[in-house]
């Protein structure tokens, strides 16, 4: 996967632990979805696979946002219970460790889901 310059620029707006959290998520995506296309959409890092949206992430003052579409979240509803959520989003508070194994599992789920929908 090739780093997108707008994503690189977006990450420069962060420092310290917030930047580290965003880099960890980006690295997981690169590792688990190496053939996905990195781009910038809706003001945040975004990924496509088979020309379809895969997932997004973003940094905020008090949390890291992770957007794996509604299906990516509903499939992990039980494991995401302790986090604030929206229809296709979850907030990982900065005062808690990132649940990297959960994030990895969601990424892998979305990759398989996306590939199975390939026409």
Could you characterize what this model shows?
This protein has 119 residues and is an alpha+beta fold. It has one domain: Aspartate Aminotransferase, domain 1, CATH 3.90.1150. 39% of the residues lie in helices and 25% in strands. The chain has a six-stranded antiparallel β-sheet with strand order 1-2-3-4-6-5. Helix 2 (16-32) runs parallel beside helix 4. The longest helix has 17 residues, at 16-32. The protein is globular, with a radius of gyration of 13 Å. The protein starts with a helix and ends with a helix.
List keywords for this structure.
single chain; 119 residues; alpha+beta; Aspartate Aminotransferase, domain 1; 6 strands; 39% helix; globular
Q: Give the biggest sheet.
A: 6 strands, antiparallel
CATH topology: Aspartate Aminotransferase, domain 1
- In helices, the fraction of residues equals 25-40%
Average pLDDT rating:
94
Q: What would you call the shape? A: globular
Distance from N terminus to C terminus (CA atoms, Å) equals 22 Å
Number of helices: 4
- The CATH architecture name reads Alpha-Beta Complex
* Radius of gyration, in angstroms, nearest whole number: 13 Å
| CATH class category | Alpha Beta
Structural class: alpha+beta
Report the order of strands and helices: HHEEEEHEEH
How large a portion of the residues is in β-strands, by DSSP E?
Answer: 25-35%
Domain count: the total is 1
Q: Enumerate the spans where pLDDT stays under 50 for 5 or more consecutive residues.
A: none
Number of strands: 6
**What is the spatial order of strands in the main beta sheet?**
1-2-3-4-6-5
